[in-house]
């Protein structure tokens, strides 16, 4: 798969984990798995359960099989995936989709409504136009007329769910892209799989999106948030470290996928309502939520909404918290956060 699939170049998490230790019975205290999926990498750490004889190889086979199914549903880089076939359809006729695919779309439409359109899974044509999608890079802004024309193909209000089994386009050329929510869904799906295998303590990460269940050696899982410095490699500069138990975390940022033109930075974070990259000084947004799919989508939405509206939204929700880094005119970063985020920061 193309390396940019399911990447909105969100801020990659540095996974602060201790080396694997061995007990006197020569049994690893943590089972570590890794692989490739959704155009990026995944890492899983599992605390073994007494009496559970599943080998690491069998667990990884189950994880890989599950993620293959997710790709076949939601990858725009697979020609025969559900999403690719839906996007090729130039019709307003109903298109039947799988329950999992429908679940993700429903969730995306809910975030679209809650964010007043800041999160929109039909934004793909604008992302492509600005050179941040599958059609290749560009290094100059597109013509304003092209932006206005492309905006006519964008809008989740033109996407309808029929009979809880099908999608329908109100505009035949409408397309969807789940890259800002599907990695989070993948994390949740793997987490459900591990719970079904009777594991209670584990950490699942796909492309920087994380769910941490239970604890590791009796302590919360420690997850680092990268400092959003242009050109920095993932994990080199850490802004904060989080203690997480039974929570998901996702980050969206402006500094991994961008181009500079005449002294101005243009980020891949596109406002689907204007057709232009966001320019609200938001450098990164980290969201903690009960599930990773929600955290993933909310982080992208708040990047577009900006700190003031984004924090108001988060503070109105019972189980979500946000940590926002703002970039000043002098390039210096400042922090702001929701009411209870501070309780997750390791001291």
Structural summary, described in words:
- The structure is a single chain.
- The protein has 347 residues and is α+β, with helices and mostly antiparallel strands.
- It folds into 2 domains: 13-70 and 181-344, T-fold; 89-169, ApbE-like superfamily (T-fold), CATH 1.10.3980.10.
- Helix content is 27%, strand content 25%.
- It has an 8-stranded antiparallel sheet. A 3-stranded antiparallel sheet has the order 1-9-10, with no helix packed on it. Strands 4-6-5 form a 3-stranded antiparallel sheet, with no helix packed on it.
- It is globular.
For this structure, what is the CATH class of the largest domain?
Alpha Beta
Query: CATH homologous superfamily name of the largest domain?
Result: ApbE-like domains
Oligomerization category of the chains in this entry: single chain
Give the number of helices. Answer: 8
Strand content: 15-25%
| Structural shape | globular
**Major pleated sheet:** 8 strands, antiparallel
- Total number of strands: 16
Rg calc? 20 Å
Portion of residues within helices: 25-40%
What would you say the CATH architecture of the largest domain is? Answer: Roll
Mean pLDDT: 90
| Order of secondary-structure elements | EEEHHEHHHEEHEEEEEEEEHHEE
Distance between the termini: 40 Å
What CATH calls the topology of the largest domain is: T-fold
Uncertain regions: pLDDT < 50 for 5+ in a row? 1-27
Give a quick rundown of the structure.
The protein is α+β, with helices and mostly antiparallel strands.
Helices and strands, with pairings:
Layout: E1 13-16, E2 31-37, E3 40-46, H1 56-74, H2 82-88, E4 95-96, H3 99-114, H4 124-129, H5 144-151, E5 159-162, E6 166-169, H6 182-196, E7 202-206, E8 209-213, E9 221-226, E10 238-244, E11 247-253, E12 258-261, E13 264-267, E14 282-289, H7 292-305, H8 307-315, E15 321-327, E16 333-337
Antiparallel strand pairs: 1-9, 2-3, 3-7, 4-6, 5-6, 7-8, 8-11, 9-10, 11-14, 12-13, 14-15, 15-16
Helix pairs in contact: 1-6, 3-7, 6-7, 7-8
